[in-house]
Amino acid sequence: MDLSTVPVAEPVNRLIAELEKLPGVGPKTAQRLTYYILRQPESEVRSLAQALLDVKTRVRFCTECFNISEDDLCPICRSPDRDRSVICVMEEPLHVLALERTGRYRGLYHVLHGVISPLNGILPENLRINELVERVKRDAVREVILATNPNLEGDTTASYIFKLLAPLGVKVSRLARGLPSGGELDYADERTMVEALDGRRPLN
Q1: pTM for the full model?
Q2: Which domains are delineated in the chain?
Q3: In the chain, what are the helix, strand and coil shares in percent, each to the nearest 5?
Q4: pLDDT (tens digit, 9 = 90+) per residue, 54-78?
Q5: Spatial distance between the Cα atoms of 16 and 10, rounded to a whole number of angstroms
Q6: How far apart are CA 177 and CA 188, in angstroms?
């Protein structure tokens, strides 16, 4: 039976269509989520709607590392307990969470918000690479850890950044290949992340 021919209330169809835009959400999942929301008390639905609005109105990017934050500087950049001489470069804010869960890394971060991918129209100038170079020039940074994903785009981005940082005399390292090739950091377990961090190798 073709569900598209079944008459459904317009607000329901609209919510299904909006949920389908989310990554990893197909038509069937969008339908299940929509009917789940329909069954919830109005207070729960209002709470969900408010949480969505708050993400857009109250959350911004840290002016230093570009991680997500409610203030100009994120809690990590503000913390006096972090090692400010080490910067770990991540593709996305979600990857910061993956490394923070290990409790092993005590340096700062720099979030690129993507990787170099010309086929997808993403060039170096579309990322936060220039800001990273300026941080290294400005601050007393002794090591930059490139923690981009171990795939073609991640490796390309890491190589590009290394070429920019090498003349500055800073140590540049890459996470060890304990991470599966082609994988993504936010799917790695804590032990794998720790091994990748501890076994990082210098680039040359």
Answers
A1: 0.75
A2: 3-58 (1.10.8.420), 64-202 (3.40.1360.10)
A3: 50, 15, 35
A4: 999 999 999 999 999 999 999 999 9
A5: 10
A6: 12
